[in-house]
Amino acid sequence: MEKKRPAWTSRYAFILATIGSAVGLGNVWRFPYVMGQNGGAIFLIVYIFLILTICFVPLVAELYFGKMTKKEPVGAFESVNPKLKLLGALNPLTGIFISSFYFVVGGWIIHYLCYHNAGISNHSEYFSTLIQRPVYPCLLTLYFLLICIFFTSRGVNKGIEILNKILMPIFALILIFLVSFSLTLPNAHAGLEYMFKPDFSKLNSQMVLSALGQAFFTLSIGMGALLTYGSYIDDNKSVTKSAYTIIFADTVFAILAGIMIFPAVFSYGLEPNSGAGLVFVTLPKIFSQLPYGNVVSFLFFVLLFCAAATSGISILEPPCATLIEKFKISRKKACLILFGIISLISIPATLSFGLMENFKIFDKTVFDLLDFTTSN
Ligand code: PFF
Fold first, then answer.
1. Residue nearest atom 7 in ligand 1 by C-alpha distance
2. ∠ Cα 77 81 84 (to 5°)
3. Which member of 28, 44, 324, 333 has the lowest number of beta carbons within 10 Å of its beta carbon?
4. SS3 4
5. How many whole angstroms from 28 Cα to the centroid of ligand 1?
């Protein structure tokens, strides 16, 4: 007998899970540093323009495609034309690639959740020593992967829905608290100016491309997550309205993440364009100088953890659903297989900063290659 496909318990659960997928490291870790590297406010304007124009249609299309076919990505493409099966397979494959670098960063977050700022004099050296270690970061990556796989293995209602219902409100509350806190810091207005006062001389094609990559990545477009989440919708309401809510929430959260980070960066006279290390080097430097810095630091990394975990499980769901429905295996077995495959790719990605830093493909380390191909 065919097993019944899972379905969301309500439209609210679907929207929350999809916002959870969209709002992730892309908003809190990637958006501020890419914005910092691309001239601040002008990047924000281009990014919002692209989200409202180019990204809206594929977002609705992907959700609707899933809702209409009620299938995982490979089956959905196959139902249009069997020849499109391979195109469909690109979705879960991309998910596996993204997860392999996403979980590396998730592992670093777990470390920073538990660490204590006191006594660290050089934060940059501290971070590079951490990620260069041969075994410890690999364990952190696997640990983060295990947490996400655990919730994925519990299924759509008892796993994905529950995780989002718990973590998303925590994320929103901490974000609002930290934004208010950041705005009270001296010279906070310089950060706001950087974010909202555009310098049109910084506009160039490379930056537009970066903004487009960021927009697709942050909305989780084109990687099967929206399609798979859409396929679990069990009502007849339109997805267009939900898409507006998802886009609105994702953009507001990205802007708030910027307002949380830039005023603090400017307040301490630090550089906003320090790249991927912005939240792991620049912010801890600030936290170490703040009153109650360890509390603020802990809250910030809890926030980052919530963002990463709710997106992490959405990255796992397309390959998981594909394994379950195409190979007719149980969710638990599918999760075990996924754990094996993702570990195999994410370990070299984790070691890209240490043992395997000289192992390059197309002149990029495994981590950079996965990040570049999936976000650009
Ligand atoms: N949107 C997530 C973020 O901004 O971090 C990343 C992501 C999740 C990309 C799910 C793709 C995906 F399928």
1. 220
2. 55
3. 333
4. coil
5. 12
Q: Which residues of 279-288 are buried (b: 16+ CB within 10 A; e: fewer)?
A: bbbbbbbbbb
Q: Which residues make beta-bridge pairs with 364?
A: 361
Q: How far is the CA of 212 from the centre of ligand 1 (A)?
A: 14
Predicted confidence (pLDDT) at residue 1 exceeds the cutoff of 60: no
Helix/strand/coil percent split, the chain, to 5: 80, 0, 20
How many angstroms separate the most distant Cα atoms in the chain?
66
Instruction: Please count the other Cβ atoms lying within 10 Å of the Cβ belonging to residue 160.
Output: 27
Distance of CA 130 to the CA centre of its chain: 22
Whether pLDDT at 302 is above 60:
yes
The Cα 123–Cα 78 span in angstroms is 50
The CA angle 97-99-102, to the nearest 5 degrees, is 115
Atom nearest to 31 CA in ligand 1:
4
Banded pLDDT at 376 (limits 50, 70, 90) = low
Distance CA 321, CA 335 (A): 10
Centre of ligand 1 to C-alpha 363, Å, is 25
Could you tell me which of 80, 78, 109, 74 has the C-alpha nearest to residue 94? 74
Please report, as a single letter, which amino acid is at residue 102: Y
Ligand 1 centre to CA of 154 (Å) is 21
Ligand 1 binding pocket mutation candidate from 98, 311, 322, 371 (most atoms within 8 A of CB):
311
Give CA–CA dist 47/247, Å, rounded. Answer: 12
Going by CA atoms, what residue is nearest to atom 12 of ligand 1?
220
* Residues whose beta carbon lies within 6 Å of some atom of ligand 1: 21-22, 24-27, 95, 98, 217-218, 220, 223, 225, 311, 314-315
Give me the amino acid identity at 56: F
Q: Write down the pTM of the prediction.
A: 0.93
